[in-house]
Amino acid sequence: MKNIEQVLKQAIKDTGLTHYAISKATGVQARSLDRFMDGTQSLRLDKAALLAMHLNLELKRKGR
User: Fold this and answer.
1) Euclidean distance between CA atoms 35 and 8, whole angstroms
2) In degrees, to the nearest 5, what angle opens at C-alpha 53 toward C-alphas 52 and 59?
């Protein structure tokens, strides 16, 4: 099972968009995206939420 970070990174890659383009659409700084994608920095939860909304992702409780 993938964690939130892995899902978010894959969704960013799958867009085919530049970090700059995603930054313009979400307000998350491109440099923060660069660092997140290369694993040198985490994202704040509010920034991850902005990206998730832009990428049409949602967090759901796993069925029991």
Assistant:
1) 13
2) 55
Q: Does residue 61 have a pLDDT over 90?
A: no
Would you state the pLDDT for residue 46? Answer: 97
Q: Quick one: CA dihedral 19, 33, 5, 26, positive or negative?
A: negative
29 contacts 35 by C-beta, under 8 angstroms: no
Token pair belonging to 33: 């995206």
58 Cβ contact partners less than 8 Å away, ≥ 6 residues apart:
52
Q: Is 51 exposed, middle or buried (0-12, 13-18, 19+ CB in 10 A)?
A: buried
